[in-house]
Amino acid sequence: MLSGLAVRERMTFVDLKALLETTDGNLSVHARKLEDAGYVECIKSFEGRVPRTEYRLTAAGRRSLERYLDHMEAIIRATRGRA
Asked: Which Pfam families does UniProt cross-reference here (predicted)?
């Protein structure tokens, strides 16, 4: 979810569900955990009478994703250095 939001300013619940190929329940729980951690912001609105839920990455979420990617790159470099 964080990776998807890192390349787009905002994504709807429907777009994220399609991207991640997950269920409504799994995405809802995952989104809530990231929201509680301060990594994503949930924006609710209406398009006409239809509810619309969007998510965007927060600054804390972007920093956390960048730290995670740095760690993964370090692990990959270390593993390749041993081969």
From this structure: HTH_34
Q: Provide the number of structural domains found in the chain.
A: 1
Say if pTM beats, i.e. exceeds, 0.70. Answer: yes
Report whether pLDDT(83) > 60. Answer: no
Binning the chain into helix, strand and coil, the percentages to the nearest 5 are 60, 20, 15
Q: Which residue intervals of 1-83 are DSSP H helices? A: 2-7, 13-20, 24-36, 59-82
| Residues 15, 7: Cα–Cα separation, whole Å | 13
CATH number at residue 39: 1.10.10.10
